[in-house]
Amino acid sequence: MVGRKPPSRKGSMADVPKDLVDQINRLEELFTVPAEKLNQITDHFVNELAKGLSKEGGTIPMNATWCMGFPDGNETGTFLALDMGGTNLRVCEITLTEEKGEFDIIQSKYRMPEELKTGTAEELWSYIADCLQQFIEYHHEDEELDQLPLGFTFSYPATQNYIDHGILQRWTKGFDIDGVEGRDVVPDFEAALAERGVPIKLTALINDTTGTMIASAYTDPEMKIGCIFGTGCNAAYMENCGSIPKLAHMNLDPDLPMAINCEYGAFDSEHVVLPRTPYDIIIDKESPRPNQQAFEKMIAGLYLGEIFRLVLLDLHQNPDCKIFEGQDVGKLQKAYSLDAGFLSAIEEDPFENLSETHDLFQNKLSIVCTKPELELIRRLAELIGTRAARLSSCGVAAICKKKGWKTCHVGADGSVFNKYPHFKIRGAQALKEILDWPANKGKGRGDPVEILPAEDGSGVGAALIAALTLKRVQQGQNAGIRDPDALLKACKAFDLKKPT
Length: 500
Prior knowledge:
The chain has 500 residues and is an alpha/beta fold. The protein contains 15 helices and 13 strands. It has 2 domains: 285 residues, Hexokinase, domain 1 (3-Layer(aba) Sandwich), CATH 3.40.367.20; 189 residues, ATPase, nucleotide binding domain (Nucleotidyltransferase, domain 5), CATH 3.30.420. The strands form 3 sheets. Strands 1-11-10-9-12-13 form a 6-stranded mixed beta sheet. Strands 4-3-2-5-8 form a 5-stranded mixed beta sheet. It has a two-stranded antiparallel sheet with strand order 6-7. Helix 1 packs parallel to helix 11 and helix 8 runs antiparallel to helix 11. The radius of gyration is 24 Å and the shape is globular.
C-alpha cells in the first residue's frame, strides 16, 4: 500500500536463526534507498539531463529524434511499422481510422535468430528485408502497391541528424555485429529492400520510448513522457528547441517541440551518486562494457536476477552465514541463469510456508531450502525489486523537475513494468517522496504524476510518427528530414486524408 513499506515477511521471522537475521539486516541496509537518497539522485539526474542537451554533451546522450509534435488524434492512413527487438522482429500494418484516436492493426512476429546477433550486417538487413517481403506478399497478394510508408522502431542508441536516418552509437541487447557502430543503418537497410523490390519507403526511424510517448498521447492528451522498464530502461519526453544548445547552430524556432530520446540507462556511469552495492560493482566489472549503463544495471530486468544470484552465492560462501549447506550449488554458479521472472515468482508466492518458492528452487536449481532460508530468499527478492522500482522513479521525477511539470501522465511499457509484482505501487511511492505531494490529493483523484500502461509504442507509435512526418513534409516543414522530395513523392502516392 502506498505510504507503507513494501509487503514483507518479517512477521514470519521468529524461527530464523540469528546469523540469517543479521544477514537480512545487512541486506536491508545495502538495498534500501531512503527518500533523502532518492532526492539526491534526482537532483544530480536533472543536471545530467541538461548536460546531455549541451554543446559539450554528457554521459546521458539526450538524442534529438526529429519527431516534432504530438498527434491530435485526427491522423489517418495505413502505415507499416517494423519493431526490431532483442528476441523478435515484429511487422505491423496499422490503419489510423477516421474515428479519432482509433486504429486497426494486423501483425506478424518473426524469431530473431541468435546467430544474427553476432553475424554480419548484410545477414541482418537481408533477414529483416525478407521478413518485410513475406509480410507484404502474404497480406497484399496480387495487389499493385505504391510505396508504403514505414516507421522503423530501432531501439538501440542512435544519433539522428534526420528522422529518416540514424547512426548507431553502440549495440545493446546482446547484439555485437561488426561494422555497424558509428555508421548510418538506413542505407544498408534500404539497399536490402531495393534488392528485393519491396515497395516500402522508410519514413521515420524511431526509438521505442519515443513511440511509447506518441502512441500514448494519441489517446491521452495529458501524456508527456514515454518510458520503458523492461530488459533495459529508458525514457523520452518533448523538449523545446530553444532548450537544446547542441542544436543552436541549426537556428530552429526556439518554441518548436522536439522529442528527446534520453537513453538514460547511461546515467551516473561515473559512479557519483547511485548507491551501488558490491554486487552491482561485480555486475559492472564483468559486463561486456564496464563503466557504461550504470543506472540500467541497477534497475533493468536483464540484471535483477543476476544481482539476486550473486547475493545468494556470496551468502553460501560466507563462513558467518552458510545457506544451502552440503548442497550442490552448481546451477546457481551459472551467470545470468536467473531472470526477473524468477524474482517475480518468489514475490508472488501466496503461501505462508513459501511452498512455491521451495518448489521453484528445487526444480530450477536443485536446491532444497529450509524455512529460514526461504524467508531470507523472499526478503532479498523484495529488496531488489523495491530498489529497482524506487530508483526507476528518479528518472521520471528528474524530467518533471527539469520541465517544471507538477502534473502529467507517463506512458510506460516493458516486461518489468507490466509483470513485476508491486513495481507500479513502489514506484508511485517513490515519486510521492521525491516530488513531495500532499498527503491528501482529493478523493478519487490519481497521483499528480501518474505512470500508466502504454499503448503499443513500437507499433502504433511508429505508425503515428511516420504519419506526423509525412504531414510535416506536406506542410513544407522539412527540419530534420534528409530527403524531403523523396518523402513528398511518397506522400503523393499515399493519401493521408483517408484510410487506404
